[in-house]
Amino acid sequence: MNSKPAAPTGQVRPAPEDRRGFLKKSLTLSGGAVAALAGAGVARAQGDPAILKLPAHSTGLGQPVAARGYGMPSEFEKNLQRRESPGLTRAGQSSVAFTPLQGLFGIITPNGLHFERHHQGWWDIDPRQHRLMVHGLVRESRIYNMDDLMRLPSVSRIHFIECGANTGMEWGNVAVPTVQYTHGMLSCCEFTGVPLSKLLEHCGADIKKGRYVLAEGADGSGLTRTIGMDRALDDVIVAWGMNGEFLRPENGYPLRLVVPGVQGVSWVKWLRRLEVGDKPWDTREETLHYIDLMPDGLHRQYSSVQECKSVITTPSGGQVLLNKGQYNVTGLAWSGRGRVRRVDVSFDGGRNWKEARLENPVLTKALTRFNIDWVWNGGPAILQSRAIDDTGYVQPKIAQLRAVRGTRSIYHNNAIQSWLVAANGEVSNVQVE
Amino acid sequence: MSRWNNAKLVVFALAAGACVQAAAQTAKPLYPGVGRAATNAEIAAWDIDVRGDLKGLPPGSGSVSRGETLWEAKCTSCHGSFGESNQMFPPLIGGITPEDIKTGRVAALAKGGEQRTTVMKLSRISTLWDYINRAMPWNAPKTLTADEVYALTAYLLNQGNIVPDSFVLSDKNMAEVQARLPNRNGLTRDHGLWDTRGKPDVSAKACMKNCGPEPRITSSLPDHARGSHGDFVEQNRLFGPVRAVSLSGGAAVAAVTPPAAAPAADPAQALAVKAGCMACHTAKQRGIGPAFAEIAAKYRADSGAENKLMAKVKSGGQGVWGNIPMPPFANLQEQDLRTLVRWILKTE
Q1: By residue range, what is the domain housing residue A196?
Q2: Cβ-based contacts of A428 with chain B (< 8 Å)
Q3: For residues B124 and B104, what is the distance between their CA atoms, to the nearest angstrom?
Q4: Which of B36, B47, B242 is closest, CB to CB, to A275?
């Protein structure tokens, strides 16, 4: 804790030890300083100036309607931004921007904070010029424009998307400080579009011989991934809607694939082509990347499913608790294999566990919000969460994953996350055994 | 690239329930008025994929020496002369032995430690061909001819000692090269992560009370790394149940006043991002190219700098700052080019 009692701000909380002396002193401070302290819950004898002195917004005229044609978050929310992990990549067009999970509520990711991962930069494509081609082992190869696609029967479904490399920096040891960087290649939206099965049906796909579908993007990378036909016919969506509006350009405007439960790279953005074939394609993102290196030197190819995982988002690394007492410990759980059945939380590094409350809705292959009450006694604690999905699979410890997969696989790290709460309230990223 | 329109048809049937629909489909067309048939020319224009079994490979050929010339002209700026550069991306070449070519398994991958280069992981020759064809050069993808892609692939294989200097790669001998790839036997699909119904490889138990020994912290961030991701105060809310740990007390105090609206983005900067300049340049730090501040300082006293640098960016070139070349930006409008160079020369 670096902040000094001499610099109270309402932004940074002094450590509990400092705080006691600080409270006494604050009684003699000038009005301005006390106003600053009110945010930290400190009041003078007469009462809180935030109540006693009416602010401008109670005594003046506010802004008119439509002052901002597209509404924006409050200025006070500007710290919650997508951010790059310094040094992770070398050029912004082939990089990742992480979602600030530490400040989000519920299960829906706001569109402007959805994580980004591009291979060759993003584009804002004119939807009137965008085409989707479906061909290969089909009765008739077809071209659809956006007008066509939006006439087809659509569905709206909430699903999480997680990059296969999420938490990948932490395979060997703790590498990054906050949940934004440990888990922020994770988002969850309501997607609207036409089920891929309908398009395949429309084109007369040969689903006996054609056991695979290739999806290709229209950007420079022309990113390609193979989807299994069983997956394609199950719950895959060719989507244009995202949380009630159109997809954002960074997320594939105007068309992307949604492959529930499967790692983000398969959710091809700026989708231009679907080809039905009798073999998987072995594309670059299937033979050189998104392959998991095992201890014997073999790479696992086509590792696609995001297994059951959870993380506490508040309190989490880089945060500091205000003082002893009540906290709502909150986090996210998800499984690429189905619904989250239960989440347990430990405050002692995994020796004892309590069941957390799951908030509705609890949906298949979607983020699920969990909450649990905790009274912090001011001593050190290690917070963990452990999710169990409806297949009975239990989220493993990092040591259990390493025993099978080693430490160099980059992808598919779904280990239990540990946050150390120090006696001064500071939370940091640790791994425990 | 072969067409499947004439392939023997199997009636599309999802599941028992969908058969009813399939039957209805023969009576009435499904979704009438939606979409249209693709023309052969359209399919040929987009169906560029080359599969692991080499389906889709177009006819053509290219020699190692032609590949070398092309590489120097179009690829060195980002990947280095021999594909060894680490600046843009982990190196393409290095880390394999003649023994690996015999066994088809790159021994260094099991040992660990060394950086994983592209040739070390490469298990399908089709991947290299297909990816160069669709995505490279990075700033001008899909501009290479098939023969050029063969030549560049041959050059990279030669740099990896997989084919000799005199080699000519073509659609006829790609399969032979596949049989020499150092990591051709290096992939496995034997795991439960392909389908959502697959069997997991790790099975944990959900113990609730007095589980295992007292936990021991095995890893935490060293103090010097805590600031590696910026000040947490700028990445958390200013109110609520928790605050950010402040790594620099001063910055936290300055944040008391509500944040001012972000200054409007400089149009020249937006242009630089759009034109791809920021892939290699930054304002202050040398990347693949010199920092803009360095460029501004160098030409401060040079009145002819503006025109000279415009010409340089348009045609590309090397030698002023080192031996990495800048690729040409021949398609930039004169007006934009001037805006960019003026802006760069003003960098403090």
Answers
A1: 92-300
A2: 220-221, 226
A3: 11
A4: B47
